[in-house]
Each structure stands twice: as structure tokens, then as C-alpha cells.
User: Which sequence fits this backbone?
């Protein structure tokens, strides 16, 4: 139904007299024409009055002696009192209410709607749109579209239900039926009205899939306790809440409203709902941008740098970390709130990462800047590389969230190559290490290394050393290059870890060995895509 | 003796225990890992000390038995998860195993520290010579994880390297 028809007359009349605003009236008459909702408030009022007048002239004495719609009353300065009106007019006559918006509305003849509590009234007007846009602009975000999300106080659902029952009753008298689902949802109507305004002010379209979210939380303290009767009627809908938050969440209230019987509801809640003294309050207007992902590969040249910050008991044990050195500049450029760093495996504090480097991905949370060209990313990469000699990054690029999966995918299957500097207790000659070069696909039996056993479960894992290449240094030292399955503990393969990694280099050589230095030569993962320099 | 980390990867702190249960020269070592970064405690490894009778010339080990009582075998120790649930709990004088030598002697190896038993070295059952040839690496006895709160205090009752050297010196002087 796109517009009002004759049979809507009684409902319109009823809702107007009980204190419901024009747009809510349209909703309960299942009017689906968005344009109607967008008409200025005053015009809508006139339209409805016209409509009623026309209807009156058609009908008999049914509407005779009907109470005038509240707006007319105010204009004439009448102080006629109904049970709900008393406090309302009393307020008007005493002094302007503390709430400026209330005053404005009352002066222009708008009574605060007993169903939407002002959402489709004051909060659909230009002033509020300006307020929202001011907040958005001052928050200084880059965005190409927006999604507007609204959080309504739960008592609106209760009042909606009461109004619905009222309308259903009235329709029943006329022998008409109506489904609750036919009523236009308040949020939907609100978005019909406000999206075009916001879109115009912000200069970008509204898009349900947008990553940039403008959210408003509304509250109405005056009627907060209106939901409480539901707790006695449907106690099992309300679970005790953690953190002293209210048990009366929107979801819980809606569930209870679905459960409660109509007769019980009508016994416990006034129908029609009472007219409120105050408007809703917009508690929070917040902006949030969806996360952005930056990927790349890093080299680590320091033997004294942890991957993540090393802090024990609030004290930092080692200065900085790989993730901080990379993320610091990204955070600043993208103006993000926080970051999450992940990589394809990681190396110890004292291990260097050479070659092409290790793939990593950083999630930047709530970035204010999102537009970066390939050129700008290159410059950003240069900035990071200029700022530290401990790490270097390459192939820095924006990626999608789903692309991150590629990085973690190969973690068990991919190979890695290492270079280790090994010490032996007994003297060695070149011939003593040559045999290692011809060992292929050596299967290792590795118990969880003692150095990590305090925080990992005790287990045995099988890993393969695919190939080795030795390089004699002197009687007590040689270099070993090895290509292994991902997840192999290299240090333990060299020194044996109390014989808990078998076989190990010491065992193979029948000597006592230790590892002096370890470097990662390559991480054989072909992601992220290599960029040309 | 070369590098401290040889055979086991550096960062171990040696805490000797001398004359356990009053038995002369039955010394042990508690190796405590120095990694206190995160996690639930500091791993310790129990080994024989050089002065222990079993490591002297001429001793032949005939058996290594982890069944320390009718109801308790250290071989049945099963741990699961990061917190090592199900581990047998040890006090300082809890026996870990009993070792017999060909000259008819029997020696009990004690835990020396409080904590959860993580694993015992099964290799020395089939190859007791490992215990004698590489007592502080491949011939270790057991791995124990003290309670997190006791990580620092667990070795306080033990000797420092210096104090142990004084004990050894005293023995030398009294026997000569």
C-alpha cells in the first residue's frame, strides 16, 4: 500500500488523538511510499488533517465530537486535560523545559510521539543530521560510502507492541485484519528519511556493505523501567547479565514480547502508550572504519630483537620488536586505533631472517585513512626501511582479509632453509663432516624442546630434514646449510636437547655439538605477490 | 669441558645437591632453565653429579628401575596439556628411580626439588652406560616442572657452584 485510503480513517484518527506522530501513523497504516515519509513534518500534519477532514465529510456521526488532534489544541492555547495530557500541558505552561529540543517541538505544536519517542520527529530533522555530520567530519575519516546504524532503546519495542494491539483492536471493529509484519518497521522508515539527508551532507552514498559505519545509540531514561514488567511475565527470557549491565537487552525484550500473551500484555502495560515528557537522547554518535590489511615480507638483521614485545611483570626486557618496528609507521600513516600482527611462522630473538624474508600481515583496526596508491605504499615501505637497520620490509601492499589465509595455509607444508654455525668439542677435519652432505630425507623424532616445555604440551613430532650442505670453518667449527620441513626445531637438531631430538648432529658425528648462530635463509612461501621495484 | 650449552642448548643454571639423605657423595645436579619469559614455570632437569658413586671407575650398572613402590611407577607418568595435568607430584625426597650395580649396591635417585614430574629418561633403562658416559646430557634422569609460584624459591635450598666446590674440597681434605 503506497498511500492512505479511506479505510485507514479510524486508525489515523485514533492514533492522532492518542499522541502518535504522523510518520508512525503512516507506518501503522502500512504505507510503503518512502517519499511520503520524507515530506516535511508540518506538511505531513496538514496532509493527515486534510485526510481526516475528507473522511469526516464522507462518514456519518462516528467522529462527531471527537477530540481534536493535540496540535490544534496547543495552538489555541487550550488547556483541556486528558489523563495523559495533564503533565504535558502543565510543563508547557510553567516554563520551557530544560531540553531545548522539547521546547522547540512544543512551540511548533509537536507533541512527542508516544511510539517513536521523537525518533521520526526531531531526530529526522535537519538539525540532527547536521549534528551527526559534524561528528563525522570532525572525526576525520576517509570514506567513499557509509552505513548508518541505529541502536534504539528496548522500550520502543514495548510501545510499538502496545500501539499495534491498539490498531489491531480498532481494525477488528471494522472487520478488517492486519498482520504485524505489514507494519513498516521504525528503523526502516528512519533510514528512508535520514539516508538522503546524510548522503547529501557527507557527499557519499549510503551502502549497506560499506566499511565505514556511522552509529548512533539512543536512550530514553524516562521510560527505562517500562520493560521491567516483562521480567515478571516471562522470567526465563531474562538471563542474569555479567558486568552489572542491564538484563533488559533489546533481544531479550523482543523475545519476551513474542512470548507474552496479548491479554497479559494489555493487563500490564497501558494501551495506548502514555505520552512522554522528554525526547530520546542521542547518547553516542560514533564512527568506525572496517579493518585494512597490509602484507609484506620482512628481513631481520638483529640477533637481539624479539618478534613481539618482551615484557615480564610490566617491565620491558628487550627494546622494541619486529612487529612494533613495522607497525609503528603503518599505524601513523593509516591513523588506526590498533593493529594485529601475524606472520608465516617466526624466529627466535637471536636468529636472523635473510633472503627474501618472512611473509607477514598486519590488520589495522579502525583506520582513518584508507586510500593509498601503489606509489604511496612504496614510499611507506621506504620510510619503514629508513627508520631501522634491524629490520627491512619488501613487497608492502594492501591485501584483502581472505588473502591472509594464504599465508597461514602453507605453514606445515612449506619448507624453510637455514644456515647454522656449529661448534664441536673434539677436533674435526673436512672429511669428518662430508658425510652429512649426502644424507637426504632424514626423519627426526623431536620431543617438545625443554626450552619451550613450560608453555607447550609434551609431545613427539616427526619432521624431515630434506638436505644438508656443510662448509668447514676450523677444527671446532663448521657451517651447516639445511633445508627442512616447516616446524622443525633446528637448534635442537644441532645440540640434541639432552638426546630428546633423535637423530641429531652430535649423535651423527659422535661428538658433543652446540649451535652458535642460526639464520633463516629462506621461507618458501610464495605469498604475498612479489612487487617490482 | 667446553661450552655450557653443549649437548643441551645453553642457558642452564647448575644447582648441585650434596650427600642426599645423608648418604656420602650421593650428589645430584638440578639444571634449571634460565628462560623465564612467559608460561607456567621454569623447567628443571635432574642429573647425577660427577662425584656420585655410580659415575666412578669400575662401577657397572645392572639395572635401572623406575618402579619405586608397589603402587608407583615413574614410567606410568602421563601428562597432558600445557599445564601438564595428571603429572605425579614430587617432593624433594621423592624417589625417581633405583639403580643397582654389579657389586650389589643399590642407589636411590631423588627428585631434590618439588614439582610435577614431566618425563623420565627411558633410554637409560635399555642403555645404562649412557648414564655413566653422558650423565649431564643424554644420561639425564628426569624432567621436573616446579609450580609457577615456586619457580624462584625451588633452587634456594640448593647449593651454588661455589658452595659445592667447597664441599668437594672438604671431602678431599678429610680423606687425605
Assistant:
Amino acid at each position: 500500500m503506497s498511500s492512505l485510503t479511506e479505510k485507514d480513517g479510524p486508525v489515523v484518527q485514533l492514533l492522532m488523538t492518542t499522541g502518535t506522530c504522523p510518520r508512525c501513523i503512516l507506518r501503522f497504516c502500512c504505507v510503503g511510499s518512502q517519499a511520503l515519509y520524507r515530506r516535511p513534518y508540518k506538511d505531513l500534519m496538514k496532509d493527515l488533517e486534510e485526510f481526516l477532514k475528507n473522511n469526516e465529510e464522507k462518514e456519518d456521526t462516528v467522529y462527531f465530537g471527537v477530540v481534536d488532534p493535540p496540535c490544534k489544541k496547543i495552538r489555541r492555547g487550550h488547556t483541556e486535560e486528558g489523563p495523559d495530557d495533564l503533565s504535558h500541558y502543565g510543563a508547557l505552561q510553567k516554563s520551557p523545559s530544560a531540553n531545548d529540543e522539547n521546547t522547540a517541538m512544543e512551540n511548533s505544536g509537536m507533541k512527542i510521539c508516544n511510539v517513536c519517542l521523537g525518533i521520526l520527529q526531531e531526530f529526522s530533522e535537519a538539525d540532527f543530521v547536521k549534528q551527526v555530520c559534524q561528528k563525522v567530519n570532525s572525526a576525520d575519516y576517509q570514506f567513499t560510502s557509509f552505513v548508518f546504524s541505529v541502536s534504539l532503546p528496548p522500550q520502543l519495542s514495548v510501545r510499538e507492541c502496545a500501539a499495534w494491539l491498539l490498531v489491531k483492536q480498532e481494525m477488528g471493529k471494522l472487520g478488517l485484519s492486519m498482520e504485524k509484519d505489514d507494519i513498516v518497521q521504525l528503523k526502516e522508515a528512519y533510514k528512508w528519511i535520514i539516508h538522503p539527508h546524510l548522503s547529501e551532507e557527507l557527499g557519499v552514498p549510503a551502502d549497506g556493505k560499506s566499511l565505514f559505519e556511522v552509529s548512533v545509540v539512543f536512550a530514553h531514561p524516562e521510560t527505562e523501567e517500562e520493560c521491567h514488567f516483562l521480567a515478571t511475565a516471562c522470567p526465563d527470557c531474562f538471563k542474569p547479565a555479567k558486568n552489572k549491565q542491564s538484563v533488559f537487552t533489546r533481544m531479550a525484550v523482543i523475545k519476551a514480547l513474542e512470548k507474552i500473551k496479548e491479554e497479559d500484555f494489555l493487563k500490564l502495560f497501558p494501551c495506548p502508550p502514555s505520552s512522554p515528557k522528554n525526547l530520546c537522547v542521542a547518547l553516542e554518535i560514533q564512527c568506525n572504519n572496517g579493518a585494512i590489511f597490509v602484507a609484506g615480507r620482512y628481513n631481520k638483521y638483529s640477533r637481539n630483537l624479539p618478534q613481539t614485545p618482551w615484557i615480564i611483570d610490566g617491565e620491558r626486557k628487550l627494546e622494541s620488536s619486529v612487529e612494533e618496528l613495522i607497525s609503528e609507521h603503518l599505524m601513523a600513516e593509516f591513523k588506526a586505533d590498533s593493529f594485529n600482527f601475524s606472520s608465516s611462522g617466526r624466529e627466535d630473538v637471536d636468529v636472523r631472517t635473510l633472503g627474501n624474508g618472512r611473509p607477514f600481515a598486519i590488520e589495522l583496526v579502525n583506520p582513518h585513512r584508507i586510500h593509498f596508491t601503489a606509489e604511496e605504499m612504496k614510499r611507506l615501505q621506504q620510510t619503514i626501511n629508513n627508520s631501522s637497520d634491524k629490520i627491512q620490509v619488501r613487497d608492502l601492499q594492501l591485501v584483502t582479509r581472505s588473502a591472509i589465509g594464504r599465508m597461514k595455509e602453507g605453514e606445515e607444508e612449506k619448507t624453510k632453509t637455514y644456515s647454522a654455525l656449529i661448534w664441536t668439542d673434539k677436533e674435526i677435519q673436512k672429511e669428518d663432516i662430508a658425510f652429512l652432505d649426502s644424507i637426504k630425507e632424514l626423519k627426526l623424532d623431536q620431543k617438545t624442546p625443554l626450552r619451550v616445555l613450560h608453555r607447550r604440551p609434551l609431545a613427539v613430532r616427526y619432521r624431515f630434514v630434506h638436505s644438508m650442505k656443510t662448509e668447514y670453518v676450523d677444527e671446532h667449527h663448521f657451517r651447516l646449510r639445511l633445508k627442512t620441513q616447516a616446524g622443525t626445531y633446528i637448534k635442537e637438531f644441532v645440540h640434541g636437547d639432552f638426546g630428546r631430538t633423535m637423530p641429531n648432529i652430535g649423535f651423527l658425528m659422535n661428538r658433543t655439538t652446540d649451535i652458535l648462530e642460526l639464520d633463516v635463509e629462506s621461507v618458501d612461501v610464495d605469498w604475498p605477490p612479489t612487487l617490482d621495484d | 669441558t667446553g661450552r655450557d650449552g653443549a649437548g643441551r642448548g645453553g642457558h642452564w643454571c647448575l644447582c648441585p645437591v650434596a650427600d642426599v639423605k645423608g648418604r656420602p657423595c650421593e650428589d645430584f645436579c638440578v639444571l634449571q632453565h634460565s628462560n623465564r619469559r612467559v608460561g607456567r614455570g621454569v623447567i628443571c632437569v635432574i642429573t647425577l653429579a660427577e662425584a656420585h658413586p655410580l659415575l666412578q671407575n669400575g662401577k657397572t650398572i645392572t639395572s635401572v628401575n623406575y618402579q619405586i613402590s608397589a603402587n608407583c611407577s615413574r614410567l606410568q607418568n602421563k601428562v597432558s596439556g600445557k599445564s601438564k595435568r595428571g603429572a605425579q607430584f614430587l617432593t624433594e625426597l621423592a624417589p625417581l628411580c633405583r639403580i643397582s650395580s654389579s657389586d650389589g649396591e643399590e642407589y636411590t635417585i631423588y627428585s631434590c626439588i618439588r614439582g610435577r614430574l614431566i618425563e623420565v629418561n627411558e633410554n637409560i633403562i635399555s642403555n645404562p652406560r649412557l648414564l655413566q658416559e653422558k650423565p649431564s646430557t643424554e644420561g639425564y634422569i628426569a624432567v621436573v616442572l616446579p609450580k609457577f609460584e615456586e619457580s624462584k624459591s625451588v633452587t634456594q635450598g640448593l647449593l651454588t657452584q661455589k658452595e659445592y666446590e667447597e664441599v668437594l674440597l672438604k671431602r678431599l681434605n678429610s680423606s687425605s
Remarks:
- The mean pLDDT of chain B is 85.
- The helical segments of chain B are 123-126, 129-133, 161-175.
